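Reopening this ticket.

The earlier resolution said the output was attached, but the attachment link was broken on my side. Pasting everything inline this time so it's all in one place.
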Amino acid sequence: MNDQKPDSNPDLEAERVGRWLEQEDRLARLLGMELVKVTPGACQVRMVVGPDMLNAVGLTHGGATYALADFAFAVASNSHGTVAVALATQMSYPAASRLGDTLIAEAREVSRGERTGLYAIEVRTAKNKLVGHFSGTVFRRGEPIAPWMKPTNPGDKS
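Inline output:
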């Protein structure tokens, strides 16, 4: 399978798609997610747990951890330059994180077919404690992502 034009560089395409997603994903921006690295089918994203990310008992809300894993899933699955959308996801939380922890999501491609892809994402603290294990399946729509890569109006609240 070849998602790329014959003259394109897969690493540069992955970086371009990842940086576009980092800029245009409103929730990722709201939560302060930072794309650390991206390669075809893989990426690393980090986020610092802030006070608005805590649940009622003072631990990181599962939704915040999930959002980080889901964003890494989006970057990794779209990094080949073809639009990929989630079909199914599942998340486990083997341990808790807390205010001030830096969470690092590491996404990797497990399988990529013509129409579907399977991804595994681990979320760990900076001290390497596993706080989330995410698996996701995407549907690859068969269309290039490039036409979508137009910057939005920064003031757009939609």
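Reporter confirms the inline version is readable. The CA atoms of residues 74 and 84 lie 8 Å apart. Residues 10-148 form a domain with the Thiol Ester Dehydrase; Chain A fold (CATH 3.10.129.10).
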